[in-house]
Structures are given as C-alpha cells and as structure tokens.
Amino acid sequence: MRALPDVRFLDRTTPPHIMTLVLMTGLAALSLNVFLPSLPSMARAFEVDYRLMQLSVSLYLAMTALIQIFIGPIADRFGRRPVMLATAGIFTLATIGALIAPDFAVFLTCRLLQAVIASGFALSRAIVRDMVPQDQAASMIGYVTMGMSVVPMIGPVIGGMLDEAFGWGATFVMLPVGGAALLALFWSDLGETATTRAASFSEQARQYPELLKSQRFWGYCLASAFASGAFFAYLGGAPFVGTEVFRMDPATLGFYFGAPALGYMLGNYLSGRFSVRLGVNRMVLAGAVLTTLGLTLLTLLTFVGIVTPQVFFGLVITVGLGNGILLPNANAGMLSVRPSLAGSAAGLGGAIAIGGGAALSALAGVVLGPGTGPLPLILLMLATSAASILCILWVMRRQRQIGG
To answer: Whole-model pTM?
Structure first.
C-alpha cells in the first residue's frame, strides 16, 4: 500500500494512493447514512409522514443502482479520473441544493442527484482491479473498505450530535465541504488506471454476453446482493426500531446505529489478511455463514422476549462482520470474470446489489409499524443472508464441475 499523497500535484497517469480510494468510498457512505438519525426530525420539518421521508433512503439507493449501470461503461470508455471529477462536482452542488430546499419535493430531487457520488463504490473497486490480479484485488479492496468502514461507524454519531445541537441542516453543511475537498484531492492524486479503453459503447456491448452468460459472475453478484441486502434492510428499518421501539433520541440512536461498522471494519481486516491465502470462495462462504448465525441467534432471542437495544444492535454487528469478509471477495470474483470490463462489471454488480438494497430498504419501512417490534426486520435480514450462502455454494459447485 502506498503512503499518503504529497502536497504537490501528481502526474495524471500516476495510480492513486490508497487513502484517496478510502476517501472516495467514505464520502459516498457518509452521504448515505450521516443523516439517518435525523429522519424523524426531518419528517417533522418538511411536514411529511416518516414513511415518505424514508424515501430519501430507498430512492437514493435506487438512483445509486441506476447510476452504476451506466457509470461502469462510461468509465471503461472515458477513464476513471474524468468520471470521478465530474461526480464530485455534481455532488457538491446537489448537496447545497438539498440544504436550501424550500419543500420536500425539491429536497428529494437534490437528494437523488447526490447519489452520483456513489460512483465511487464501483469505480474504487475497478481501479483496484486495474492495478492488481484477483486475489490481491480482494485483499486490497478489503483494506480500502476497512478504512472506509470508519465512516458508517462515526457518521450517524456525528449526524445525531449535529441534529441535537443545530438541527438536521447541519449535516447538509458538512457534506458539500467534504465534496469540494474530495474534488481537489481527485484533481491532485487520482491518476488514470484504465490502460485500455473500448473504442465505443457498441464495442463494449458486444463483449457483454460473455459476462452476462457467466454463472460465476451471477453467483458472485447475487451473493454480494443478498449479503448487502441484510445491511440495506437494516438501514431502512433501524431508525424506526431505535426511535419508535426503543424510544432513543437522535444522538443515542446515532451512537448505536454505527454498530455494524465495528464488525465491518474487523471483517475488512480479515479479508485483507487472509484472502490471498484462502481464496475468494472460502472467504465469501465464511462471511455469509457468520452473518446468518448472528441473525439466527438474534431471531431466537427476540422470539423468547429478550429484546433490548444492546441485544439488537450488538448482534447486528455480525451483519457488518460477515459483509466485511464477503463483499471484497465477491466483488473481486465478479471483476475477474472479464478484466477488460472491470468497470462495467463493478457497475452492474453494484447496481444489482444496491437496487436490491433499495427494495429491501423500502420493504423494511413497510413491514415495520406500531406494535410490530423489531422481529419483521430481523426475519427479513435473516432471509437475505441465508440466500447469500446458497449463491456461493452454487459458485463452488460449478467450479468443482468445471475442474472435474
């Protein structure tokens, strides 16, 4: 891993420092979760129902999925650097618009434009895959996301504290400052890593069937989608559980809300440490099993009436742990099916994962209501996690058949 960037401006073909990739994904994660403890107060400020306000999460995820379908091919065609410079600029302007929005409709429009910064999720992985082969990519992605995982841990805490002190708008003052700083960092350090470019989008389209017909690609892709789906369901339902079931104030909810990031950071470290040695398939399986076991225990405790904030948020740490192990390896696997289309594979895989996450986030808001308690959310998370086990077992079975 390279050291932190020097102050001087670097050559535009110099690969980025790892900290640049961490911050690229970190701001995207911060934009997603920093304001979650403020959802109830934002609903009151805009005079809308909580479930309508929750669309700023689920529709944001849906827009992120849509963007990633196109951002990968665009980055394969024009390069990683110009795409990320453009997205950082758009994000900064959209966040200012959300801050000064006169009503919910304008706010939601600007909120959806903010989703462009999530290009960093897909393109950071593509940049890594441009630089190193599959198993090393899984290791490096693990280290990148280990650093990034600090953001989901502290983001809701900061958001909750800012809400308590200054109101929900304070978080939307912090974000454009971060966007402008990231734009400057991209300009100085984000050298181009895509050494080969498709001549046209039609040329890329002619290569897509090989990617889309690969059972290995779909196995990794769906394992990633179902595993991350448990986390996205948590994003959609945990603010309701914390506020309405456990009666937490925004600052307290922000403190507990970041619990999965503790597990995610540890899982990313384990991924970076062991992926090269154990291989991506066994790491994906280990992550899926760990998450499912933790959610099974949470389900059993909830059925017998042991429902406290410490139990709920404590065991949800296993969702972060499992995802931290699984996602870097599943992503490295899907990007290695067709390395020349790494950006497109990253975008398509991210679109499927986040699109499914948007649906699960919205579904979490639907299944939770007065008197339900946290059980519907827990069961939803458990079902998606169990599905990720089936997907990686499918990949492993196919590879044994091919090898035999």
So the answer is: 0.68
